[in-house]
Amino acid sequence: MPDRSVPRAVSATWPTELGLRVVHLWLLKAVGTTLFMVLFFQAYFYVLQHPSRAPWVMPEIWLDRLVPFTPAAFPVYALLWVYVSLPPALIGNLRALLRFGAWVGLLCGSCLLVFWLWPTRVPDFGIDWSNYPGLSALKGIDASGNAWPSLHVATAVFSAWWLYRLLQQMGVPRGWHVVNAGVCVAITWSTLATLQHVALDALTGALVGAVFAWLSLTPADLRLSQRLQQRLAQSRST
Predict the structure, then answer these.
(1) Which positions are tagged coiled coil (predicted)?
(2) 3-state class of 56 per DSSP?
(3) pTM value?
């Protein structure tokens, strides 16, 4: 479960620690993240193309009317694939890296099972998507299926909580936490602004991501490996 201890004070050596974390096991992180995404998309599109029954249309609620259609939100929507790569990049020990991979795999697998058992899609918004090339390609591939819960939002929230704890462990300035939260909120907003999801999808996805983050985070897993601790201590003494 997440550490509820007092947040670590801002550290003068956090940039050094951040660099050490990034280069630690970098090849395993790069290959593992890439392989995970390839396997995920294969499973995702299989479920999308082979639903167990006809998709049910998700209803809109009052919150949907507060978020206008914004084609310019597409780059923010696509930012997720960079964002979810940040937590593994900053993990400083093998155990935590494997734990993160296992839990995010369980998160994605659970949502894919829901998508297959209870396929859903967003309403027909009556928009000529050919007027929006980027979104048109996305709609053609995704067909706005696998809507509930929003796995886009779930993985963003899951990553945000892991990043929060990793940044807290490093003792970064508060501004970094603000940016982290802002990116997560922006990605969530983009799922509604691009009409890829409705509010019920996003709200449920956020809940799923938060629950999986709460279950997966442990203080011991977030610490540096012994080798990195030694290297950080050496950098402080020079």
Answers:
(1) none
(2) strand
(3) 0.92
